[in-house]
Amino acid sequence: MKLNTALAGLLAVIEGTAIAQADTQSVLQAVLGSSESSPVPSLSRRRPNILFIITDDQDLQLNSMAYTPLTAKHLRDKGTAFANHFVTTSLCCPSRVSLWSGRLAHNTNVTDVSPPYGGYPKFVERGFNDNFLPVWLQQAGYDTYYTGKLFNAHTVENYDSPHVNGFNGSDFLLDPYTYAYLNATFQRNHDPPVSYEGQHTTDVITEKALGFLDDALEGDRPWFIALAPISPHSNVDPARLNGGEVSFSAPIPLERHRHLFEGVQVPRTEHFNPDEPSGVSWIQNLPKQNESVVEYHDHFYRSRLRALQGVDELVDAAVTRLEESDQLDNTYIIYTSDNGFHIGQHRLPPGKTCGFEEDIRVPFFIRGPGVAEGMVQNAVTTHIDLAPTFFQLAGIPTRDYFDGTPIPISPSSKVTRHEHVTVEYWGKGVAEGAFGGIGPSGSNMIGNHTYKSVRLIGEGYNLYYSVWCNNEHELYDLSTDPYQLHNLYPLISRANSTEPRILGRRLSDAISRLDALLLVLKSCVGINCIEPWNVLQPDDSVRTLRDALDVEYDSFYHQQPAVSFDWCDAGYVIEAEGPQVALTRHGLNWDIWT
After folding, report:
1. Out of 92, 93, 529, 568, which one is annotated catalytic?
2. Which of 55, 72, 172, 589 has its CA 20 to 30 A from that of 505?
3. pLDDT band at residue 38 using 50, 70 and 90 as cut-offs
């Protein structure tokens, strides 16, 4: 902390003197140390600015990006799209805390949207208000700004208990009005909250965003600005809050966009309202949706697309303002969402708390210095990688406790990527919309929705494996079953002649490796989250599932303790989560990893 603060002052002194460029760079190298993953920024130009735009609940798999042409023009066509970018917890607050901290939810222990297991109070209780990305960027000499939604349970009553740290300028949306499109309340810096009843939240955020952008552009330091509109999240009317139960309705677009996309429907893929149920736990018992429900879901989908038009205009306005300045060429612009969304897939009502592709795979675009234009990058990346990536862009040395690694933003990057994504969830599933009352007594909350899973994309395989808190299992081979309709796990008991194969191996052999990998990932910290195979086989040349499937290792993997739960809990309670420690192989022997 003190080193970074000193560095900021050192930069100011150096840049104001006649020290030669080469000497200046050597001073910085001496202070920071050199690292291939965290290069020292050249002082031939000011350190890069970062504009970060994060939407709320935006889908990728349902094709929402096809309806945002301005974002496509400015970010997709002028930058790189990451086709395999995932969240690690498909719920707003846990996903955002992980993004800002660089740590998986089992390491933040912020696992829900409200206390006792989540929300802004839990973020503060866990010490992150003094130890997250904007604080680190300020210490490194950046001006930082934020407008929009930060966390759930950040309210008109607790906004100053304490104030959020780390921002030179901020204007936060506050609960219970965060998701009220026409009745938002914002809280600027340390001022009291202000109601914007009657104004559309996206227009309000756009005005505030451009104001902060002007402030940043007029400054003489590099800057980081985060813009967090709520679109296309469902609308939540504060007047209809009922204790812990929330009433979700379709998003409300700006008046100028209400007429758009008439006749557009949810993509009619194989898993949209399928004839046969799929999934496990409560999902497999969902009834097939009737015509009225399907029509409503199409309306809900159109409302989401319409609500995104304001975000599309926000992107255009921000990029246009940068184009008018002299700083666009020295600015990275990143666009993503906190989690994905499903509507009708697997017979599910609108929502986002599952491990299916619709919920965990999200849009991710980046443009800026050294980023290829119009490129699609297939590397596996996650929100856990964002804090290390921001560090790399800003020239800040990485931190050992980060659970992720910088994203390869340049086509010439030689960084070896991992093939896995850790996906974890605790508590309740949430159903939204007019037909979301599928829980007990018509509730839209479904209990026992805790699971741990791993998503793998490697050479010749494309897999999702999960263990639920009731100890049901899922295994989908997305190379042959892209819509996750056929759970392979029950087939493990079939005769060898009919059992499906993964990379030529029996299901039982593949599952033994996947389960061991998940056992490491569900409680990993730091480098072990990035290189989990090294925990299992530190003395072997095993870096991928393909490597681990060598028949030489069969006995080792078949003796691993299995991932399991002792009971379903609403939060991260280690005692409920079964075995925590994997065996480690050393030559022909193995022991408990510590």
Report:
1. 92
2. 589
3. very low
